[in-house]
Design brief:
Helix 4 packs across helix 5 (about 200-210). It contains 11 helices and 18 strands. With about 375 residues, it is of the alpha/beta class. The strands form 3 sheets. Strands 3, 5, 6, 9, 10, 17 and 18 form a 7-stranded mixed sheet that branches. It has helices at about 40-50, 95-100, 110-115, 170-185, 200-210, 220-230, 245-250, 265-275, 300, 315-330, 345-355, and strands spanning about 1-10, 15-25, 30-40, 60, 65-70, 85, 125, 130, 145-150, 155, 190-195, 215-220, 235-240, 255-260, 275-285, 305-310, 340-345, 360-365.
Length: about 375
């Protein structure tokens, strides 16, 4: 057990506090990672707002960690001390979906990623003898060290700065994977991306990489729309200027074959469905509040249209994250343009910058 610094949330909406805690040594199948940097995701902010309500408290969040392996537990063969790794979501490896190569839909996803404890109910850290909730997405990487399972540690090459790579573990793989793994648009096909935050921008870059013909970014922030054009959008629409559905129909001559909804706003979800051509597919990655209902016109769906949810870009992280890194090295996936780095101690400032829209993807550097 060793002393480490972590960012703790002690109640719903409370600010993060940098505190000293005691972290376990890695158990069988676990990996201790010295965190180099960690991305800040809206899921962290969502959990911060519900700490002690829908999520346990006090809790250490963070789920886009990247760093260097410091220790490995018994039985670990996938990585060794000194390896560079990205931390991603946890999965059990035993359920039907995991065995079918779909770990993002693990039957135990909630228990392994959101409960604040290991699968056996224990915690990876304590503070002066009192257990402290962690294991957020199997890592809790808002800290100088994190414990993950061998399954959710991805070995990455050492010729790319490790401080850049954390967001690949969640937000970036969600956007890119929604295009490359889930929707799989044909070369030359049409796509509309609603919401050009980090996830939507990753989707736009991926759409360009796979050869979509018309890539339309929709948002209400002019600075984001300008960046979307730089990163691969062929057209952008400011939804504050009028009905984006009509604008897209006019631009495309009727609608798009594919759409991706990345805002979590019900009105926008409906727009993302309404712009589809017959047999079109809408992927939904934005997360509205629990128990929210999405009103749709069934007659619109009758013409072969599909609405489907997507988790973590339907990624198999050990395969997909190295692919994204290779595309980045080739200059075909410049996700670094989304990132602004902050010192770990400025975690609350980084979150404010993200919530205000000033920064697309804050990354905390240890």
């Amino acid at each position: 057990m060793q002393d480490v610094k972590v960012a703790v949330v002690r109640g719903a909406g409370a600010p993060f506090q940098i505190e000293s805690v005691q972290m376990d040594d890695p158990r069988t199948g676990e990996v201790l990672v010295k965190v180099s940097a960690v991305g800040v995701c809206h899921t962290d902010m969502f959990a911060q707002g519900l700490a002690g309500l829908g999520f346990p408290a006090p809790i250490v969040l963070g789920h886009e960690g990247a760093g260097v392996v410091a220790k490995v537990g018994a039985g670990v063969t996938k990585v060794a001390v000194g390896d560079h790794v990205v931390l991603t979501f946890a999965s059990c490896g035993q359920c039907l979906n995991c065995q079918d190569g779909a770990p993002t839909y693990c039957n135990n996803f909630g228990a392994l990623n959101l409960a604040g404890v290991r699968a056996d109910g224990s915690t990876t850290m304590q503070q002066n003898g009192t257990p402290l909730h962690g294991s957020f997405f199997g890592q809790s990487s808002f800290g100088t060290y994190a414990i993950a399972n061998e399954r959710n540690v991805v070995k990455v090459p050492k010729d790319v700065p490790i401080e850049l790579l954390g967001p690949l573990g969640c937000g970036i793989q969600t956007g890119a994977g929604s295009i490359m793994n889930a929707l799989r648009p044909e070369i030359g096909s049409t796509l509309a991306v609603f919401g050009t935050g980090a996830v939507g921008m990753a989707a736009i870059m991926a759409a360009r990489a796979v050869g979509c013909g018309m890539i339309i970014g929709v948002d209400v922030k002019p600075n984001r729309l300008a960046l979307a054009l730089e990163l691969g959008a062929t057209h952008v629409i400011n939804a504050a200027d009028g009905d984006p559905v009509e604008a897209i129909r006019e631009l495309t001559g009727g609608g798009v074959r594919y759409s991706l909804e990345a805002t979590g706003i019900i009105k926008v979800m409906r727009q993302a469905v309404d712009v589809l051509l017959p047999r079109g597919v809408c992927g939904v990655v934005g997360s509205p509040p629990p128990q929210t209902e999405l009103p749709l016109d069934p007659n619109h769906l009758l013409f072969g249209r599909t609405v489907r949810g997507i988790i973590e870009g339907e990624s198999v992280p050990d395969v997909f994250i190295p692919i994204l890194i290779e595309l980045y090295k080739q200059g075909r996936f410049p996700f670094d343009k989304l990132i602004r780095q902050f010192p770990f101690e400025q975690i609350n400032e980084a979150i404010h910058a993200s919530e205000s829209g000033e920064v697309l993807k804050p990354v905390l550097v240890m």
